[in-house]
Specification:
Elements (H helix, E strand, L loop, with lengths): L2 H28 L9 H7 L10 H9 L7 E6 L4 H5 L6 E8 L14 E5 L5 H11 L5 E6 L12 H12 L2 E10 L6 H16 L5 E9 L10 E9 L10
The structure holds S-adenosylmethionine.
Protein name: Methyltransferase type 11 domain-containing protein
Amino acid sequence: MSGDQIKLMGNWRKILNSRDRISGRNRDLEYSWDAYDKGLQDYSIFFEKVCPDKKAGLKLFVENTLSDRRGQAVGVDVGGPGLMLFQGFDPNFFYKTIGAILLKRYEYSEILDEKHTIIEADCLKARGLRRLKNSLGGDGKVDILFERMLGGIKNYPASPEYLWSLLNNLYKLLRTGGMMFAQSPDLRGKEDKQNIQNWLDNLQNNSCGSLELKHASMPSMVHNVPKEDVYEIIYLRKLEGAPDDLPR
Ligand SMILES: C[S@@+](CC[C@H](N)C(=O)[O-])C[C@H]1O[C@@H](n2cnc3c(N)ncnc32)[C@H](O)[C@@H]1O
C-alpha cells in the first residue's frame, strides 16, 4: 500500500471513529431522560399558562379551534416520540402524526398506531428540518406542532438570533390557521433575556391580527442556577395574512 493510501485509510478511520462516538453519546443520552414520551395531560400542565382557553384545556382548545381540520389534521412533536401525546386526542381528529427525535429507541421499532411515525431528525439543523418536511407528505404543512424538549433544549444557545431562527423554522411549517406550543432554551444573560422578552411582547401586541402569540416565563428546571434563569413557553398561531417569516 502506498503512503498516500495509508494516509487516506487513516483519515477514514478517524471519521468513522468520530461518527461512532457521536452516535454512542446520543444513544446514551436518548435512554437517559427521566421524562420521555409523556402524555397530553403532562403537556397540558406544562403549557397551561399560555393556553388561550384555560377552561377548556389544551385538548379541547386544539380540537375546537382546528375543528375544520378534523380528520385531516397533521400533528408534529418536535423533540419527542409523540406517541403518548397524540394518543390523548380524539382518535378521529388526526390524519397523521409524527414524532421527531435525535435517535429512535429500540422500543419504538414497531409501532402499532398506523397514523403515527417516529423519525430521526435533528430539527435544529437544515437537514433534519428537510427530513421532517419530507415525511409530512401532502402539502408539507402542519396544523399543530409541539416542541417540548425539556432538558433536551436547555443548553442550546439562547441568543435572540438563535431563538428567532428556531421558532421561525417551526413557524414556517405551519399551515395558515395552524398553531404551535414551544419551549425556549434557558435564557441566562440579562440583556439577551430582556431582548427576547421584548421581542415576544412586540409580536404579541403588534402583529395586526395575523399572528396570535402568548408567552410566559418559567423558572429554569436546572438545579442550583440563579432564580433569574428562566425559559419561555410560547403559544403561536399563524392566521390569514401572516408573514412568511416571523418578524424579528
Ligand atoms: C427530555 S426528552 C423530552 C421528550 C418529550 N418531548 C416529552 O416531553 O416527553 C428530550 C428529547 O429531545 C430530543 N431532541 C433534543 N435535541 C433535538 C433536536 N435538535 N432535534 C430533535 N429532537 C431533539 C431528544 O432526542 C429527546 O427525545
